[in-house]
Amino acid sequence: MPFGLKNAGATYQRAMVTLFYDMVHKEIEVYVNDMIAKFRREEEHVVNLKKLFDRLRKFQLKLNLAKCTFGATSGKLLGFIVSERGIEVDPDKIRAIQELPPPRTQKEVRGFLGRLNYIIRFIAQLTNQCDPIFRLLRKHNPGEWNEECQVAFDKIKQCLSSPPVLVPPTQGRPLILYLTVFKNSMGCVLGQHDESGKKKKAIYYLSKKFTKYEAKYSSIEKFCCALVWVARRLRQYMLYQTTWLISKLDPIKYMMESPALSGRMARWQILLSEYDIAYVSQKSIKGSAIADFLATRTTEEYEPLRFDFPDEDLMCITEMKSESSKEKSWKMCFDGASNALGHGIGAILVSPNGNHYPFTTRLNFFCTNNIAEYKACIMGLRAAIKRNIKILEVYGDSALVVY
């Protein structure tokens, strides 16, 4: 493709994924024209390189030898330093920011803040620290560089002297989520045990200020709201691994074991049903203290929680036509499953108007498939009793004996 086309990068990336479809995320990583052959042991390095070179030779692709590095244990990737320790900030870019003089014009202020976007994921509450500098960009009431701006400027440079190292999660080990909720804010720390199992390493820090409406929720509803928001933000981590939740209250038990939920709680229950989250009693206050600190130092910016959920979260919804004599009757469908992965039950109440009210929960004890069916039926009947339903049609796929 000729240079200058806007779709050149996307087309090249799509071509690389097509050519190396069976090697991407396994032996190599490809981002446009950056290609890395990764390995865990030295003896695998030559094998992966040979496979990569054979594929390049097959499609007549060439590499620039001056830009190639072999046998490196660390290096720059997309502007960051990637090594066995994790992801670190590039020292050259830190030095460039530290050597900047105090900005005097709005153009220089914008340039300084633009450079800070590179390190925003490495410094906690960077937006809050830059608040005096952001005031200089006001359109109708621009400020002047004063002592408060200089203090914030020096504090940011001081934070850059020892930036943290971001550690990626390890497959096969459960994640640990410390969740703390206050009156108007929440904070969390996502971590994981190291190889020894004695020390914890931080993976991600998050904090959020509740909206005006979320601040009116009850304590348990705030925990549920915070957990849903965190699951959305950390979906790429939590979706494929078991997560241990450590908090003062147990939102999982409240949502999964309540016989009847309506409105936002029912939607939150469906959104969390795809994650493997287990509540663990709090044994250490170290991670909780960090979460408390983040919750108390939230910025004024907030992100409203969206209640909509993708269609793939719903397995099946069927609308059944009823006879005229049964128009006011409710319907209940239940099912249970017991296998090597766990034991779960679910039920759906269908109102005469066609509204669906799903209920799901996980059983924490060993049971047969027949017992799971009984539990699912009982959970659905309890939900119907709580809603004062008089006429109920029950549908199931097992021949249960009901007295």
UniProtKB/TrEMBL annotation:
Ranges of residues in domain RNase H type-1: 326-403
One protein family per Pfam: RVT_3
Gene Ontology MF terms: nucleic acid binding; RNA-directed DNA polymerase activity; RNA-DNA hybrid ribonuclease activity
Key words, A-Z: Endonuclease, Hydrolase, Nuclease, Nucleotidyltransferase, RNA-directed DNA polymerase, Transferase
UniProt cross-references to InterPro entries, sorted A to Z: DNA/RNA_pol_sf (IPR043502), Rev_trsase/Diguanyl_cyclase (IPR043128), RNaseH-like_sf (IPR012337), RNaseH_domain (IPR002156), RNaseH_sf (IPR036397), RT_dom (IPR000477), RT_RNaseH (IPR041373)
Protein's UniProt keywords contain Transferase: yes
Record's keyword annotation contains Nucleotidyltransferase: yes
Xref: PANTHER family: RIBONUCLEASE H (PTHR48475), RNASE H TYPE-1 DOMAIN-CONTAINING PROTEIN (PTHR48475:SF1)
Protein name: RNase H type-1 domain-containing protein
Organismal lineage: Eukaryota, Viridiplantae, Streptophyta, Embryophyta, Tracheophyta
